[in-house]
Amino acid sequence: MPVLETHDLTVRFGGHVAVDGVTASFEAGTLTAIVGPNGAGKTTYFNLISGQIRASAGRVVLNGRDLSGAGTAARARAGLGRAFQLTNLFPNLSVRENVRLAVQAHAGGGGSMLSLASGHRDWIAKADRILAEVHLEAAAGQPAAALSHGDKRKLEVAIMMALEPMVYMFDEPTAGMSVDEVPVVLDLIRRLKERRDKTILLVEHKMDVVRSLADRIVVLHQGRLVADGEPGAVIASPIVQEAYLGVAAPAAAATPAAPAGREGAR
Ligand SMILES: Nc1ncnc2c1ncn2[C@@H]1O[C@H](COP(=O)(O)OP(=O)(O)OP(=O)(O)O)[C@@H](O)[C@H]1O
């Protein structure tokens, strides 16, 4: 059974259909890259899945459960994890405390004083394990606000890992990062993928990143799903060739809205 499904997912902004009847399903242990020209509807599709915006029509189903009427918090509790919202961080708390709070929230941290005390040790131990995984252990005692942009992103991934979602959604994970920070974040995503039990969705403009990480590519164009499949076949398809590589598509194919090679500007 797929972990996540969208059925005919659609949103209209005034007369503009930003996401138009997108039906797709995503299995555990797979990383799907969602690509398309600027304005194709990729971020809006993410917003519809995570509940940031309400669909005009269609459904979002997680593990067989229809979440279409649920808000963002309920969707997060149900197992949808979205990275890089930046609102997740407590800037004045330490890096470790930020992760510990997420571990505790996931554990449902209540109970007696005794269980709270032992729970607290376990939560910190788990927070430290996660910080080691994302290579932030050396910064554990620093306030979150003191971190570099790249390290903040790692901390956000750590917080998301602490919440143990079923689905990880990354919207341009390397945007705004320095050259030396990029491989660290990509390595994090690669290691999440290697666990084989998570469903990962990645919006990404850089085709080299997509090629190196994706098991599958979904192409959106003017809000519609226009290609979906194994990376080699999708990258070779006329619509992707034209949108990303500047090769003219046959007359029958739709014309992408963005100039060729636009992703290279990111
Ligand atoms: N809240 C909104 N109100 C009105 N129009 C919107 C809103 N959000 C997105 N849009 C429009 O919907 C379309 C899809 O936008 P979206 O940001 O999802 O595209 P994208 O594929 O993520 O683009 P990019 O690659 O540039 O980030 C665009 O035309 C955008 O202007």
Automatic annotation (TrEMBL):
One Pfam family linked to the record: ABC_tran
Annotated Gene Ontology cellular component terms: plasma membrane
Gene3D superfamilies according to UniProt: P-loop containing nucleotide triphosphate hydrolases
Organism domain of life: Bacteria
Keyword terms: ATP-binding, Nucleotide-binding, Transport
GO molecular function per UniProt: ATP binding; ATP hydrolysis activity
Boundaries of every ABC transporter domain copy: 4-247
UniProt cross-references to SMART domains, sorted A to Z: AAA (SM00382)
PROSITE patterns assigned: ABC_TRANSPORTER_1, ABC_TRANSPORTER_2
InterPro entries: AAA+_ATPase, ABC_AA/LPS_Transport, ABC_transporter-like_ATP-bd, ABC_transporter-like_CS, P-loop_NTPase
Family membership: Belongs to the ABC transporter superfamily.
Protein name (record): Branched-chain amino acid ABC transporter substrate-binding protein
Native source organism of the sequence: Prosthecodimorpha hirschii
Lineage of producing organism: Bacteria, Pseudomonadati, Pseudomonadota, Alphaproteobacteria, Hyphomicrobiales
